[in-house]
Design brief:
The complex is a heterodimer. Chain A is an all-alpha fold. Helices cover 75% and strands 0% of the residues of chain A. Chain A has a domain of 199 residues: MetI-like fold. The chains are: A mainly alpha, B mainly alpha.
Chain lengths: 307, 299
């Protein structure tokens, strides 16, 4: 197990450095720096600003300084929000995005797998068709169509739920964003779960279990789920990536001050450090999730040898 | 013992029966699938409307009319889908948006297919260390929140529509490369490839002449499933203001405008959304149908 973790980390760290280098390079290649204004600054002042932010040094050296700061956990000052560091900005947005993301992923995993299993067991019944029909809608209706429609219906016509704002994490403010964020994932997961459960149900070891007279409920809880959940575990990291990008839009629509908002604002204003900071955070989270899904897989699937 | 004697006519009859190719068979199976057939009709209708529709309508997509702002849909006014905040006819804008969304879908998909197929066949065919390295790269890229890369690309290089095609194509090729590689590995073990090799055919020609034609079915299925995800991606970017720019429009732009104004004018969100959802659903059904049709084992 420890070997697996070490091996994964050995891949993850160079990957992170490559990502940082890529984002760093791209932002520097772009025409126009963060301090390019329509009104030109006097050259001395520009010189001073560039010195203060290390922008006058050669690129390689800038990258070195940046990397060593990141290693200490310092993402640098924000170029646009002058009085804030990137750490402060991310810390202020992260709890919101995390609450949103974790609730969405838990709901989509639980509901998605549950619906998928039931649809597979009750294959070709009305329940199956209903689940698959709804999940088709979930796949075809992008979240940025769904979210406005939901808030129009529940927020404005029925007046049940608030349509925007964070309000200190009030549960009612969370419902609409979480639902519109998780519906597409529920759709994908339930379809995956359905097909993998059907496959498992048709396999030999299940037939053996049935022949031995094990009750159906027990076969499903003990044998089927353990094997059919594997594709879902592999899907954990892509699902999270999907939720991250989805949350950028959802935070925009529902006016939530999460890190997705900072990312878009940062990207539009060429706030190099802010964009790379968010990017690094996203990438590290994903690496962590890949590691997590590898470990889970190794625990659940005895065929995976822990190399 | 009875020996049946064939006359010359009989033989001619037998020889004149044409064999069915794999693809014509698959096409017949596809047409038998009701969901796919309906989707095929809907998709063709939307495409035809987008391409030719604007010529038959009395309004232009950039034409503003300050006397008809936020007109609800009605038959009398000639604005069948209503108008937006600048008095522009929504139907025409949806059709123009459709042209753009569909062409981005097709072009970006082609870009990603070209990259993915080249990459996948090379990795799969040559195998060994090269394969390991190439697939490791794909694996790493796979874990990236790639949409965020597209956002950065769009910000860095400006909001250019051609770049949009390229940027989307450049991130969508990963799945294609993986699938193509897997298929290539299984095809290259077949006898006919060995025969071709023993005749001294070069690797390049084997890939072009023997491997890629055998991959065609898989590639077609994935194209139909990739076009919808590209359309969503474009809309996503346009929604953030990073995609298509005014006065041009796409379904994503229209939806994003619509969602901002839905309280005053619901039709601005519902109609573009409907067109987009119908297109995505049809493409998904066609993709599913094609997969079943090309893989008769499933029956």
């Amino acid at each position: 197990m420890i070997q697996l973790i070490i091996k994964r980390l050995a891949i993850a760290i160079p990957t992170l450095i490559i990502i940082i280098a890529f984002v760093f390079g791209l932002m520097r290649v772009a025409p126009g720096g963060p301090f390019t204004n329509e009104r030109a600054l006097p050259p001395e002042i520009e010189q001073k600003i560039n010195e203060a932010y290390d922008l006058d040094k050669p690129l390689i050296q800038q990258f070195g300084i940046y990397l060593s700061k990141i290693a200490k956990g310092d993402l640098g000052p924000s170029y646009k929000y002058k009085d804030f560091t990137v750490n402060e900005l991310i810390l202020s947005g992260f709890p919101i995005s995390l609450t949103l993301g974790i609730s969405a992923i838990i709901i989509s995993l639980l509901l998605g797998s549950l619906l998928g299993i039931i649809a597979a067991i009750k294959r070709n019944t009305i329940f199956d068709y209903a689940v698959m029909g709804v999940s088709l809608i979930g796949i075809c209706v992008p979240s940025f169509v769904l979210a406005p429609i939901l808030s129009l219906f529940f927020g404005l016509y029925l007046g049940f739920l608030p349509i925007s704002g964070w309000n200190g994490g009030n549960i009612y403010n969370l419902i609409l964003p979480v639902v519109s964020l998780s519906l597409p994932q529920i759709a994908i997961i339930s379809r995956m779960m359905r097909s993998s459960t059907i496959e498992t149900l048709n396999s030999n070891f299940i037939r053996t279990a049935r022949a031995k007279g094990i009750p159906k409920r027990r076969i499903i809880t003990k044998h089927v789920i353990r094997s059919s959940i594997l594709p879902i575990i592999d899907y954990l990291a892509p699902a999270t990536a999907g939720l991250m990008t989805g949350s950028i839009i959802i935070e925009q629509i529902f006016g939530l001050p999460g890190i997705g908002r900072y990312f878009v604002v940062g990207a539009l204003q060429r706030d190099y450090t802010l964009v790379s900071g968010v990017m690094i955070l996203y990438a590290s989270l994903l690496m962590f999730l890949i590691l997590l899904s590898d470990i889970l897989r190794a625990i659940l699937d005895p065929r995976v040898k822990i190399k | 013992m009875n020996i049946k004697h064939y006359s010359k006519d009989d033989l001619d009859n037998i020889l004149s029966v044409k064999g069915n190719s794999l693809y014509s068979d698959a096409f017949k199976r596809l047409l038998k699938n009701k969901a796919s057939l309906t989707s095929l009709i809907i998709l063709s209708l939307i495409t035809l409307l987008s391409v030719f529709g604007p010529y038959f309508l009395q309004y232009d997509f950039y034409e503003t009319d300050w006397n008809s702002i936020y007109l609800p849909p009605s038959l009398e006014s000639g604005h069948y889908f209503g108008t937006d905040g600048n008095g522009r006819d929504l139907l025409v804008r949806i059709l123009y948006g459709g042209r753009l969304s569909l062409s981005i879908g097709i072009i970006a998909t082609l870009v990603s297919v070209i990259i993915g197929v080249t990459y996948g066949t090379i990795a799969g065919y040559f195998g060994g260390k090269l394969d390991t390295i190439m697939m490791r790269i794909v694996e790493i890229l796979y874990a990236m929140p790639y949409l965020i890369f597209v956002i950065i690309l769009m910000v860095v290089f400006g909001r250019n529509i051609y770049l949009l095609f390229l940027a989307i194509g450049a991130v969508e090729w990963l799945t294609m490369a993986r699938i193509v590689r897997g298929q290539t590995i299984s095809i290259k073990e077949k006898e006919f490839i060995e025969a071709s090799k023993s005749l001294g055919q070069s690797s390049f020609l084997i890939i072009i002449k023997h491997i890629i034609p055998n991959l065609a079915g898989t590639i077609i299925v994935y194209i139909t499933l990739m076009v919808p995800s590209v359309i969503i991606l474009e809309s996503f970017l346009s929604f953030l203001g990073l995609g298509v720019q005014e006065p041009l429009t796409s379904w994503g732009v229209l939806i994003s405008e619509g969602s901002r104004e839905m309280e005053t004018a619901w039709w601005l969100l519902i109609f573009p959304g409907l067109f987009m959802v119908l297109t995505l659903a049809s493409l998904n059904f066609i993709g599913d149908g094609l997969r079943d049709a090309l893989d008769p084992k499933e029956y």
